[in-house]
Amino acid sequence: MLNAKSDLVGVVTRRDLLDLDIELTALVADLVKRPAVVIYDDCSAREAADHMVRERVGRLPVVSRSNPRRVIGIVSRSDLLEAHERRLHAHHRVERTIDLAATLAWVRPTDR
To answer: Which of 4, 13, 16, 72 is the most exposed place for a label (fewest CB within 10 A)?
Structure first.
């Protein structure tokens, strides 16, 4: 949640919104139960994933160290999984290329 100056002041979780004890007319500001858990823009994807696990959250507002109350983005668990999937596919393509090259290198010229 951002205040009037667009500074990060907290987060409202899906759990907060699904709480059956809240009134439908409750203000979003009243639903904030804890400060935002953030990740800095100079952190790695691995650090973001580790931070999500430690804090038990599925999304992290991204902030800079020079202005940690100003949100510059958000990273989700699915963002991290998609990046990991792309890395796995790229690694698999490299392995397949290496295997093919190794196979061709062992074929004698007369066998080709």
So the answer is: 4
Q: What is the CATH number of the domain that holds 68?
A: 3.10.580.10
Q: Is 85 inside a domain boundary?
A: yes
Domain that holds residue 56: 37-111
Domain count, the chain: 1
Helix (H, G, I), strand (E, B) or coil at 70: strand
Q: 53-65 burial, b if ≥16 CB within 10 A, otherwise e?
A: eeeebebbbbbee
Convert the pLDDT of each residue in 69-83 to its tens digit. Answer: 999 999 999 999 998
- The reported pTM is 0.69
Residue 66: DSSP 8-state: S
CA atoms of 87 and 51, how far apart (whole Å)? 20
Whole-Å CA distances, 66 to 4, 37, 63, 69, 72: 20, 16, 8, 9, 12
- Residue 23 inside a domain? The answer is no
